[in-house]
Write a structure and sequence with these properties.
Strand content of chain B: over 45%
Shape of chain A: globular
CATH class of chain A: Mainly Beta
Number of strands of chain B: 11
Radius of gyration of chain B: 13 Å
CATH topology of chain A: Immunoglobulin-like
Order of helices and strands of chain A: EEEEEEEEEEEE
Number of helices of chain B: 0
Oligomer: heterodimer
Number of domains of chain B: 1
Structural class of chain B: mainly beta
Largest interface: A-B, 26 and 26 residues
Helix content of chain A: under 10%
Radius of gyration of chain A: 14 Å
Number of domains of chain A: 1
Chain lengths: 116, 115
């Protein structure tokens, strides 16, 4: 069974500081990995995704993530955080396309607070 | 840019009542999903739907839940007899079958409150 762990429930950073949100996954094969962001009262917006190839993937809003198979991790990073980045961030793992439903399994989320 | 839409944005109901949550997936998408998020908890998979049948469902998706694609555009989630613990945000998502990636596009959600 696939699972995702986000060890940090809350993170507070100062505006302009760098950010790293941790994500560890468990999956028996090569995973499809995603980061979503959810602002208060809003839906889930895809930040970036990893399927194969280059292990460093770029996303929207200046975010990037690095897939490390040896560590089963897919950490999200941003060099300089903006106040508008305050939101909840979810890491998710999906199964490869094998004809099944290909559900996403989400982590518990990390709430990011940005101090001005 | 096409997007998934959901109605209503907020639904309040009495325990034991039936509710239907509606979703309009992106028009050329063929795989549909429902997820839910209880307040303060993670997003959980409920069900996936393809070719007019359920392809996968979670243990949460018991006999009180059903899904339907009544026409060419809507995708609905019905809860027959709501319980207090059904209070949650319900997200619909869709995926383009031809896509080689498992990218799902999510709607804004329907907040269901069961009193």
């Amino acid at each position: 069974a696939q699972s995702v762990t986000q060890p940090d429930i809350h993170i507070t950073v100062s505006e302009g500081a760098s950010l790293e949100l941790r994500c560890n996954y468990s999956y028996g094969a090569t995973p499809y990995l995603f980061w979503y962001v959810q602002s208060p009262g809003q839906g889930l917006q895809l930040l970036l995704k990893y399927f194969s190839g280059d292990t460093l993937v770029q996303g929207i809003k200046g975010f990037e993530a690095e897939f490390k198979r040896s560590q089963s991790s897919f950490n999200l990073r941003k060099p300089s955080v903006h106040w508008s980045d305050a939101a909840e961030y979810f890491c998710a793992v999906g199964a490869a396309l094998t004809g099944g439903g290909n559900k996403l399994t989400f982590g518990t989320g990390t709430q990011l607070k940005v101090e001005l | 840019e096409p997007e998934v839409t959901q109605t209503p944005s907020h639904q309040v109901t009495q325990m034991g009542q039936e509710v239907i949550l509606r979703c309009v997936p992106i028009s050329n998408h063929l795989y549909f999903y429902w997820y839910r998020q209880i307040l303060g908890q993670k997003v959980e998979f409920l069900v996936s739907f393809y070719n007019n049948e359920i392809s996968e469902k979670s243990e949460i998706f018991d006999d009180q839940f059903s899904v339907e694609r009544p026409d060419g555009s809507n995708f609905t989630l019905k809860i027959r007899s709501t319980k207090l613990e059904d209070s949650a945000m319900y997200f619909c998502a869709s995926r383009r079958l031809a896509s080689s990636y498992n990218e799902q596009f999510f709607g804004p959600g329907t907040r269901l409150t069961v009193l």
